[in-house]
Amino acid sequence: MASPVIRLVDITKVYQMGAEEVHALRGVSLSINRNEYVAIMGPSGSGKSTLMNIIGCLDTPTSGLYELNNTNVSEMNDNQLARIRNKEIGFVFQTFNLLARSNVLHNVELPLIYGGVSSADRKKRALEAIEQVGLADRAHHKPNELSGGQRQRVAIARALVTKPSILLADEPTGNLDSKTGEEIMALFDILHRQGNTIILVTHEEDIAAHAHRRVRIKDGHIETDELVKDRKVVTHPTLTSV
Amino acid sequence: MRWWLDELKEGLTIAFGAIRANKMRSGLTTLGIVIGIVSVTLMGTAIEGLNQAFNRSVAVIGADVLYVQKWPWGGGGNWWEIRNRKDLLIQHAKAIEDDATTVASVSPIMGTMRNVTYGGKLVEGVVVIGTDADFITTTNANVDLGRFLTAMEANGGRPVCVLGSEVAESLFPNEFPVGKVIKVGNHPYRVVGVLEKQGSLLGLESFDNRVYVPINRFFSEFMSRRGGIQIWVRAASLENVDETREEVRGILRKARKVEPGAQDDFAINQQEFLIQTFNTIGGVIAAVGLFITGLSLFVGGIGIMNIMFVSVTERTKEIGIRKAIGAPKRAILMQFLLESAVICLLGGLIGLAIAFPLSLIIDQILPTAMPVSIVVVALLISLLVGVISGFLPAYRASRLDPVDALRYE
Ligand SMILES: Nc1ncnc2c1ncn2[C@@H]1O[C@H](COP(=O)(O)OP(=O)(O)OP(=O)(O)O)[C@@H](O)[C@H]1O
Ligand SMILES: [Mg+2]
Q1: CA neighbor of B61 nearest in space, from B252, B194, B198, B195
Q2: Interface contact A59-B403, CB threshold 8 A
Q3: How far is A135 from chain B (nearest CA, A)?
């Protein structure tokens, strides 16, 4: 069997709030293989975002082992983690998190700038990623000139542009209406079919239904981890050409 | 190397973007640096002007000329003792002339002030100097018109004189001065020559507002009693000027019967002493001046630091985004350092643009140009102020936790 992209063993995360300890994760073990499509679900405060931040190397676990592509990242320093975030991880946030003063092209180019890609190559790859999410005609617009769904697609292009090992999305449709949310999910479906490994956090069963595997978390534990039977695959008409 | 240039370019783009987005704030912050740079460069220019003026003046005094006088330059000594010293006399000058072997030329000097007239023209307060024919070699002065006093005229006390260039211009704006008879005080003197322009001491005392007459005639016409002269001695060579000073000292001690072991009852002054005194005073003025003006730059730097802290806080979310997509600490640090460096450099450039026309005003008083070195130093200083005052805010930004920064609203 091929080795997993992500291997988490007994991960805990404890936040110190003054004298009080908040146990956000209480021993999570999880392996995810290449080209899996995983939905993480669970009630508010159960530790989903904490888990995603650790997988995305934005945060480090209090204890436990985290291997990404067979490399132990749980003991890396800040700069090594920054490098991993840049090369191996594409993160999509609920609130888009685009740079307001920069246009679409520059936002998408940014990871490549920090990755040290030459400027000609950078522009080519950024335009490719922008085209992939169907925004080629908006490359020189600022985020505030775009709709919510378009902004999220820019964020996805930015996550894709470095060709990362995993795509992480923490409630990517949380700030969108359901129709726009479906459009975004259709895009994730296509990206999955193209071979990407995707992990997304969601509250909505509808959204989770796009994934192959569903992980439920409660109180910092994995409650269930199962394959999705009633999988829903939608391809949005505007994206079928992609 | 590539990534470095790209990060630099990205940093500069962000810096200019941030400055443009907050024009008012950046402008006001820059003002602090502008004021600092204007005051520091103007102070530097003034100090440079003072130095240049001094060096021009002191060149006239000559590095190889010894000025034997009662009073030492640069002060010091017991005022009462110096005041009561025996006068220096013509015979002392004679003794040096006769006995010294390392001396090129010796001149007795005596001065006073008189009005000088020719025709209807009057020049007030001219320094009348009684001296001998060797004066021209002792001081290395150049004759512009005619000639200097001859030995015969000088020793015989003839009623002839040589004019400094300023006096000549005032009395003879349209006439050839040589051969004309002028009145020095109430006494007629025939002009035999005019000296070339020599300049002034720090723009105060002119070396050209002078009339030179034979010292023997000077005594009888301008001084009631003999005595109280100075003796100017040119050393045979500049390298051995110290040796000459010791020789002159020995001769004078003997001629003036100074007891062995007793202190000299005269002073041998040199250009070097003036330079030393000036350097001490000038150094203190420069240090104090630059310190005070530097304070304004310091205040400007604090303003920059303050605004950079605001900028970092305001852009916490942006920092979080950049970190999330893989910006290393170094890149965040550089981004904010560049921003404060750019603000300060702009301040420096604007400051120089304002200081330059103002320095032309200084030029009217202390002829000098704003030195290139000051321009370079001013720009380096503003860069340095930017980097130093930007460092703490930038360092704080670079250490932000990405998750916390992203959550910041
Ligand atoms: N920086 C922090 N400091 C202290 N406690 C924290 C911090 N971040 C998260 N927590 C706590 O950890 C627990 C898990 O938080 P997390 O954000 O992972 O929940 P979540 O499952 O993503 O919830 P939601 O669905 O509302 O986004 C919560 O109890 C939260 O209060
Ligand atoms: Mg969450």
Answers
A1: B198
A2: yes
A3: 20
- Which residues are CB-contacts of B92 (< 8 A; sequence separation ≥ 6)? B68, B231, B252, B255, B256
Asked if residue A65 belongs to a domain, the reply is: no
Q: How far is B330 from chain A (nearest CA, A)?
A: 9
Q: Is residue A20 part of a domain?
A: no
How many CB atoms are located within 10 Å of the residue A53 CB?
22
Q: What are phi and psi of A134, to 5 degrees?
A: 80, 30
CB B234 within 8 A of CB B138: yes
Does residue A107 register a pLDDT over 80? yes
pLDDT at position B58 is 77
Q: Which residue has tokens 């902004």?
A: A151
| Cα gap A221→A199, rounded to integer Å | 17
Domain of A205? 34-58+78-241
CATH at residue A174:
3.40.50.300
- What is the reported pLDDT for B276? 82
Total of domains in chain A: 1
Q: Hey, what are B209's tokens?
A: 């507002």
CB atoms under 10 Å from CB of B67, counted, come to 21
Interatomic CA distance for residues B196 and B153, integer angstroms: 21
Amino acid at B198: Q
Whether A109 is covered by a domain: the verdict is: yes
- From the list A78, A85, A118, which residue is nearest B324 (CB)? A85
Ligand nearest, relative to CA of residue A23: 1
pLDDT at residue B272, rounded to an integer: 81
Cross-chain Cβ contact B7/A82 below 8 Å: no
Q: How confident is the model at residue B277 (pLDDT cuts 50, 70, 90)?
A: confident
CA distance A38 to A197: 8
pTM (predicted TM-score): 0.76
Q: Cα(A153) to centroid of ligand 2, in Å?
A: 20
- A177-188: per-residue pLDDT in tens? 999 999 999 999
Q: Residue A242 pLDDT > 50, yes or no?
A: no
